[in-house]
């Protein structure tokens, strides 16, 4: 769907309907992110109430990741082919029903099944919602502003999930499962009125079923393998064979996509350096943060003896900083471009993680924990919206769902992969059953790995700074020959070759 020149999205002032559309999409993304983080604090209560073992308990988290990370590519392409509005509405309704089911069941397997269904529905709402924004708001300052608000809601949802979980778990873990249901139903009611219709892509060569099967199977197996690797052993035959099978499926997927008349993922998109940097940066950003949150939650509750609510409140400054900056990031990106904003954000991320290495068995909230949380909040506010803007700029409307699916896949697979790696690092020497100091010492290598992951994200971003400088030089040179050329703003790195 191409945005008409005189549509509200091209004007400086947004109509109430346009604001309503954006807020509905933000609510869905907020719920997706909320559900990722909110279950963590409730796990001990769930285990006690349902009598679940540790091995079974992990699947309450892993089931959601499997559904979400494994089906995002299919979800993104389905939004392009079947209609973004239709896919979004159906998936949001399924999300609400699965939330209701999760809060009412009395069986571990049924709870895991409900989590998988929620992850599956999120795999369709996330790329559909993002592509609705990128096809409704014109590329440039208007879209940047919309994306900054949208992605900030996601980051806020992830941060606030811990706080809400701490509060609700005091009543019952079931409330952490039930809370998203009424919110999703309210969002669905407004979405029926506000979400614009989008045309289906009829006659574009079919649905690429072989690509959908191999791509989805590859993502599901990859996520399953990295989730299970710490338990099975990274060097075990089971893990190695799973990785080999994943590689074979990915090779088959690439071959199919190259030959397909209507590919699930058009590989030419990845010829763009800015697109590749956005995808890898998203994996490093979310992977490092998820692993950091996992370690810090264990540190605060197991070593410092803090309650679930105290732990949640410790993360609150980061969430508040992200929420308060939601309307400002678009203007910052317009002025400085995505590469510079992402680079600054990753720098803050590295410093925040490195600072946390100074923690001890004595709480140091004002000196260590609070500064780290503020740095991480600022980093999240800068990096996450900018990555979304960079990934979707310069992409045709009919491929926005596909690119959105790619980006969300990078986020989820990065989260699963790096969390599994960091978990393996902190449990490698078996220090978990030792003294408190031994446990803390086992956390430090994990924090160091988290810092290195964030540093890798920064290094991935740096080549984009040189690209932007060359583009600015071209604009300046052209403006000397033709003053009108200077009127074209350089608000973000142009993904050269994105349409090849």
UniProtKB/TrEMBL annotation:
> What UniProt keywords apply to this chain's record, in alphabetical order?
Antibiotic resistance, Cell membrane, Membrane, Transmembrane, Transmembrane helix, Transport
Localization per record:
Cell membrane
Question: How is it placed in the membrane, per its record?
Answer: Multi-pass membrane protein
Region (Disordered) residue ranges read: 478-500
Q: Where are the transmembrane segments?
A: 21-43, 55-75, 87-105, 117-137, 149-169, 175-195, 207-227, 239-256, 276-296, 308-329, 341-359, 365-384, 405-426, 446-465
**Keyword Phosphoprotein among UniProt keywords:** no
Q: Which InterPro entries match?
A: MFS (IPR011701), MFS_dom (IPR020846), MFS_trans_sf (IPR036259), Sugar_transporter_CS (IPR005829)
Annotated Major facilitator superfamily (MFS) profile domain residues: 21-469
SUPFAM superfamilies xref list: MFS general substrate transporter
Pfam families this protein is in? MFS_1
PANTHER family for this protein: BLR6921 PROTEIN (PTHR42718:SF46), MAJOR FACILITATOR SUPERFAMILY MULTIDRUG TRANSPORTER MFSC (PTHR42718)
This chain belongs to which protein, by name? MFS transporter
